[in-house]
Amino acid sequence: MTQTEAKERIEKLKKLIDKYRYQYHVLNRLEISEEALDSLKHELKKLEDEFPDLVTPDSPTQRVAGKPLKEFKKIRHETKMLSLEDVFSEEEFSEWLTRIKKLAPRDTFRFYAEPKFDGLALSVVYENGILKYAATRGDGEIGENVTQNVRTIESVPLNVEEKGKIEVRGEAIITKKNFEAINKVQKKKDGQIYANPRNLAAGSLRQLDPKITASRRLDFFSYDLLGMGLKNHSEEHKTLRKLGFKTGGDLERRCEGAEEVFKHYKGIAERRDKLPYNIDGLVVSVDSNKLYKKLGVVGKAPRGAAAFKFSPKEATTKVEDIIVQVGRTGALTPVAVLRPVEIGGVTVSRATLHNEDEIKRLGLKIGDSVIVGRAGDVIPDVRKVLKGLRTGHEREFHMPKHCPVCKHEVKKAHGDVISYCVNKSCPARHRENLYHFVSRKAFNIDGLGPKILDAFLDNGLIQDAADIFELKEGDIAPLERFGEKSAQNIIEAIKNSRRIPLARFLYALGILHVGEETAIDLAEHFGSLDKLEKADLEELQKVPNIGEVVARSTYDWFRDGRNKNFLKKLLKYVEIENPKRKKPGKLAGKTFVFTGELESMSRDEAKTKVRNLGGDPSETVSKNTGYVVVGENPGSKYEKAKKLGVKIIDEKEFFQLVK
Ligand SMILES: [Zn+2]
């Protein structure tokens, strides 16, 4: 190949690689495989090795080219990188707005609201279309030159179609998934464990060896564009995207006023946990750059923008009491009664303590100051006791020896950490059983939640679950809070629930240890309620996945006089669909246990696939388990499978089996 030919080929390769890089790392899609992209890079590298004169700084091969540095050089920012004022509520936001409106009473205020990424702020400067240097924020005036490292971030373009000198500001971040993967590797080699993705992003950018930075797969979201004299902040974002940068996507928008900002804020707060990376609020700026400038700077923060932070996910408060709740199975759960505290926008006054052992593990006493946390929609829990704040007036908690509701004796099964009220007619258990009966995986009666059931019970409209089917519109409508319309809806939902597959019916009965899976096993094995009712202990134990304990509790349930009467009454209203006898599928007789997260489908979907082919999904690993399917972050089942020598397969192999 001649020099001229090589030059032409190199130019074309660079363009093509850059196009695919942009698709993959900025737009999150790829038309060709990563392997094919690597192979293009490889060809380019070989050509450049042959013709070193043709290497340019914007070549994709130059992303990881630097040698380790001794130290970072300092860089003075041409325009100071300011910090933002924080506001934590709509009220504080409105105060901020009132304040700045006073300074510019004649101006129209429009806003640009965008995610506040939780990473490390960067300034990236381009000259003549080429990435010139990149610096950390530092103290806002002087940062560190991290150009070598920033070049390894694939979502940062090495060249842009803008010849003037421009500065792009944004945040280098690491996704939650990468964060976990990297910490796992660090742990294996006894390296440093990072506290959170921000910490890791900062640590990765401040590596003297760019190869380490490259291995961390940082991402970059841009939010400011300086040097082009654009009129609005929203225009900056539009231009950034045009130049090939990533921005906040559908997490950012222009807002006409405070109300629109609040609405956007709420929407983002709800999606926050599901995002692949951490954000800790919204940045709200006045959209007009002219107005932004006019409002000026106070201290180190511009007046024209504010960080509208999400409320924290943890807070400290005091445990005023510990009470005990009785569940459907009679399980006693200690619950902390808290001095009310706001966490993540919700006032929290109770937190679960799970069981007695958890209280011991925490070392919790009544009266203690604690850290309470809340993740997603889960019930808040106590994370840590602040023992340094004790006054000496704290009291020890003891699990009661008697059920707090029916005063019956409490028992703890051998080796179990949970105490149970063993009184079968305990009103608390009865109530919880009703909740269970109508729940989604049981009778699935729409609109009939705990609050309504409580009202029915308290007004004497029902005694047991069978009574639900006797309810009339006229019974419900007069109750407080229920209008005619909702009464009608509930009656309709009850009517629709009368036909029910055997497995769901069995699950709804609330037999101790009979969960969703076991109910399906029982239904498929016996084929009808009649056969199951008559089955003796020995026969019950023949059902796949059913051991002595489950067999015993099932057997006992059907022989209890009270249950017998209930069943007789219930069957007057309910029509059970028996499972169809299936032809033996190709997985017949094989049990499958899943552990860890599957990438391409939910666990429920995977189980259905197994079942459809005649196989048997199970929750516990034993010698008789056919396969243990291991996804990402597998749990103890994986260890157990290895110990027992059970066949272990990954997601790909599983697909081959169920294809
Ligand atoms: Zn009780």
What does this structure look like?
Residues 582-659 form the BRCT domain. It comes from Candidatus Giovannonibacteria bacterium RIFCSPLOWO2_01_FULL_46_32. Its cofactor is Mg(2+); Mn(2+). Helices cover 37% and strands 21% of the residues. It is α+β, with helices and mostly antiparallel strands. It has six domains: 3-62, Helix hairpin bin (Helix Hairpins), CATH 1.10.287.610; 85-309, D-amino Acid Aminotransferase, Chain A, domain 1, CATH 3.30.470.30; 314-408, OB fold (Dihydrolipoamide Acetyltransferase, E2P); 427-497, DNA polymerase, domain 1, CATH 1.10.150; 501-577, DNA polymerase, domain 1 (Orthogonal Bundle); 591-658, Rossmann fold (3-Layer(aba) Sandwich). Strands 2-13-10-3-9 form a five-stranded mixed sheet. Helix 1 (3-26) packs antiparallel against helix 2 and helix 16 (502-508) packs across helix 17 (516-526). It starts with a helix and ends with a helix.
Helix content: 25-40%
**Could you describe the largest sheet, including whether it forms a barrel?**
5 strands, mixed
- CATH topology (fold) name of the largest domain: D-amino Acid Aminotransferase, Chain A, domain 1
Q: How many helical elements?
A: 24
Strand content: 15-25%
Q: How many independent structural domains?
A: 6
**Could you give the order of strands across the largest sheet?**
2-13-10-3-9
- Cα Rg: 32 Å
Which structural class do you get from the secondary structure elements? Answer: alpha+beta
Characteristics:
single chain, 659 residues, Helix Hairpins, D-amino Acid Aminotransferase, Chain A, domain 1, OB fold (Dihydrolipoamide Acetyltransferase, E2P), 5-stranded antiparallel β-sheet, binds zinc ion, metal-binding, manganese, DNA repair, coiled coil, Hlx-hairpin-Hlx_DNA-bd_motif
